[in-house]
Amino acid sequence: MQFVSTRGQSPAVGLSAAIAAGLAPDGGLYVPEMLPAARELREGAALADTAADLLAPFFAGDALESALPSICREAFDFPVPLRPLGNGDHVLELFHGPTAAFKDIGARFLAGTLSRLQAGKDQDLTIVVATSGDTGAAVAAAFHRQPGVRVVVLYPEGRVSPRQAHQLGCFGDNILALRVAGAFDDCQAMVKQALADRELQAQMPLSSANSISLGRLLPQMSYYAHAALTHHAHTRRRLNLVVPTGNLGNAMAAVLARALGVPIGQIALATNANAVLPAYFNGSDYRPQPSVATVANAMDVGAPSNFERLRWLYHGDDAELRAAFRAFAVDDVSIRATIAAAHASRGELFCPHTATAVKVLQDLRARGAKGDWAVVATAHPAKFEAVVEPLIGEAVAVPPALDALLRRPAHAEPMAADYAALREVLLR
Ligand SMILES: *Cc1c(COP(=O)(O)O)cnc(C)c1O
Q: Ligand 1 pocket by C-beta < 6 Å: which residues?
């Protein structure tokens, strides 16, 4: 399969080239030249096998084609349970990986592809990544001590939780953490600038691992496919989803999976107070905004990068796109109230991001939504203990993988929100 840019000004390339490049040369995002036809997918297969099945058409004809099953086995080696809550509600738990957030899955798959593409090359590959919290840790964990790869992570100082900051700085070796005096959008803009800097690229091969990367986006379809197929096997019903949304990478994967024939019903987007998407889906123009800080900080995004892909999928037809989704914003007061109430009434623990989806599902049910729904749980609550613990009045037990990271010493370098400063660090 060939991949083209959402902006239509770049030549078509194969999958390996699209993954290695991150961003297309015209500044657009890579998308498949055409979507594979919807297929019969096997129900009851293991997650790694469902992933290999679903992703096979995208890998067809590429240098990585024969490695796909092993990349899937390596990336999907932890459970992704769909846990019933009763009355047709479920939680799709994506946080059982090494850094306790869903981004582990895409990051590990990307590391599997890039490390194979890097084998035998004499120059190291530098991966620059902007993070509002969880991406950087997942990418750092996935690439830590991988030969031939260096990772430079930029995060907005003071805008990530203390445990997130610790996770970003605790790897060392081939991982460099930079704490930037700015917002996430500044970090993201600097990374985009580096990836578009031809002079820099001539001196050092650069790639990204942000949610624009196809190597992260595509594998994220797998857990939706596995959950929806398993659910369908038992009930013959489609699974509807509420996806906590920032850059739209996770939700975009659900949309693609549905387009490929996975039995997913409605997809509702839950944002925090950064309400660019809810405004758009309610009929306003698409208007990116500076991000505002919230308690669901991994979703503090004012310019959702995958929106370009969503528009591509709907042929730029805003009316058709608006008809296909609903999106709702949840403010910090409601996020906190949802976490406290779920714990008090049912002993359930949710991270602030997951809580946005829980609140949206509660509102949909209150307005009569029928059928089976899953809220997508994107992080373990122990990663956001500073928000969660005061609300529930007790400590959240830390999962063992996260605990091991928190015991390592951590260090991050300070940096100005200025592209020249980043360039200097990259070149040194
Ligand atoms: C990144 C992240 C999100 C948002 O995912 P997008 O793909 O950027 O929409 C939601 N929750 C958590 C915990 C995250 O780390």
A: 101, 103, 133-134, 211, 244-251, 298-299, 353, 378-379
